[in-house]
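Q: I'm writing a short explainer about NADP-dependent oxidoreductase domain-containing protein for a general audience and would like to include a description of its predicted shape. Could you first generate the structure from this sequence?
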Amino acid sequence: MKNILQKKQLGFGTAPLGNMFRNIPEEEALATVDAAWENGVRYFDSAPFYGAGLAELRLGEALAKRPRDEYVLSTKVGRIILDELEDPTLRDLGEKGGLFEYGRKNKLHVDYSEDGTLRSIEDSLKRLQTDRLDIVYVHDIAQDFYGDEWLSHFESARKGAFRALTRLREEGVITSWGLGVNRVEPIEIAMALDEAQPDAFLMAGRYSLLDHDRALQRVMPNAAKMNAKIIAGGPYSSGVLAGGTHFEYQKASPEIMAKVDRIKAIANRHNISVKAAALQFVLANPAVAAVIPGASRPDRITEDVAAMNEVIPAAFWQEMREQKLVAQDAPLPI
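A: Of course. Here's the predicted structure. Afterward I'll give you a sentence or two in plain language.
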């Protein structure tokens, strides 16, 4: 990736600012971005999907007072926000079971075409109050959103968004582009395409303490070969590794909760936080350029920064490996 994210870093994923799971007061959302900045965070990621533009609007307002050259900004394409509002009496909770039920009520239109990509970027620039984007990801072309039809959406993106973003990169309009997905299969296919040549992959939830085997074997080695960076989203696995009850954006199963309890028990024995283990495990992989946990309260940012700096004894990782809670060949921060 050209000239950005050269140093491993803690970034900020702004999905929660789109009122994910709860109605977040405006002042709290803006204060969270300010807290990230004051704690040294300089990479911010957003998307039109997050609250139908709400996260981008809030991020744009908060960053408008900051020097544009001092931070890296990414957003995503694949959905156009319409002026038309949903009828609340007929409203379906929508994708991911109402993930952004408390977001703006504008309808979203799926569009991975070239024209749709260019329109999405233009709209995002306005909401983000900026004249340029550093990274643009093609969003959610995977099974979790489109089921058996996901490959047709991938093909639409290959013919539309991929080519448009490649051209914009060549023209210097954007610095980098890639995929932003919750599954590894689209990344594997994109890596095998001769014409695609993406620079980065935002992989949410697929390289974490709870789930990393396939990414470790199928994604990381190929990313290194093609000099593409991995941005790890969802390091807390939708919150279950940070004291929450969600995994994969749904209520965590008893099996997942049991695995989390095992990790917590080991962390307690070594007097460390699970948050620290989750963040530092992700960044230990050489392919990972940044980890971007989400936050909706200023104090969560402070916790993330503290977790990055927490000292974790090698004995913790040894026990995690002995208990088969991390893969035998996974790079560890020791």
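A: For your explainer, you could say: The chain has one domain: 9-322.
Q: Perfect, that's easy to follow.
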